[in-house]
């Protein structure tokens, strides 16, 4: 059984990532691929329980360091219970956020030490790095306005202020530049169909 492919979507708030995850999953299914859609934090019962702790409450509820450990605890469970079994069974996994969100939110914008993030990544993610990461890029003020208009109860990160979200965008752009083998920067501006086409160009290279 050939191992499945692992695709992650990354980017700041309100970049339209989740809509595009849905579009890509539909397209892959139409191409005959067995695909699992999942998300972080979350994606397994334990991961979702940890998600409830990190996405709600005041913006200073957790320090960046504690938040980082919670994200990697959720990630560890998600990998064990959902991602690794699916890839081993030959399924493709499309994940809405993954470890680059920890690099950008808790590291670049939050101030957690980069070497600590990388050490956790080595131990928790190890060899199971994404085959492809799509980094959605949009000016922070536009994304934040979109996100706040539909946030529901999960507003902890949205409420961190524009300076945080500017740092976040810069962090994601640096990640994409630093990992050109794995990452594609996706211009998230414009109509949904145009963004979908940009995503498909990047994913097509992985198709059998
Ligand atoms: P979502 O709104 O895209 O579902 O993501 C929930 C929030 O969790 C989002 O504001 C980003 C944040 N997050 C981190 O801060 N670090 C992480 O490692 C992950 C996966 C998400």
For the structure shown, list the relevant keywords.
single chain, 208 residues, alpha/beta, Rossmann fold, five-stranded parallel β-sheet, globular, binds thymidine-5'-phosphate
3D structure, described in words:
With 208 residues, the protein is α/β, with parallel strands linked by helices. The chain has one domain: Rossmann fold, CATH 3.40.50. The protein is 53% helix and 13% strand. The protein has eight helices and five strands. The protein has a five-stranded parallel beta sheet, with helices on both faces. Helix 1 crosses helix 8, helix 4 (99-109) runs antiparallel to helix 5 (114-124) and helix 4 (99-109) packs across helix 7. The longest helix has 25 residues, at 64-88. The chain is globular. The model has no long low-confidence stretch (mean pLDDT 95). Thymidine-5'-phosphate is lined by residues 13, 39-41, 55, 71, 97, 101-102, 105-106, 157.
Task: Report the top-level CATH class.
Answer: Alpha Beta
CATH topology: Rossmann fold
Q: Please state the overall shape, judged from the principal axes of the Cα atoms.
A: globular
DSSP summary: helix tally: 8
Which second-level CATH architecture applies? Answer: 3-Layer(aba) Sandwich
Q: Over all CA atoms, what is the radius of gyration?
A: 16 Å
The residue ranges in which pLDDT falls below 50 over 5 or more consecutive positions are none
Q: Strand tally, please?
A: 5
Distance between the termini: 14 Å
The major pleated sheet works out as: 5 strands, parallel
Unique bound compounds: thymidine-5'-phosphate
Domain count? 1
Overall pLDDT = 95
Give the helices and strands as they follow along the chain: EHEHHEHHEHHEH
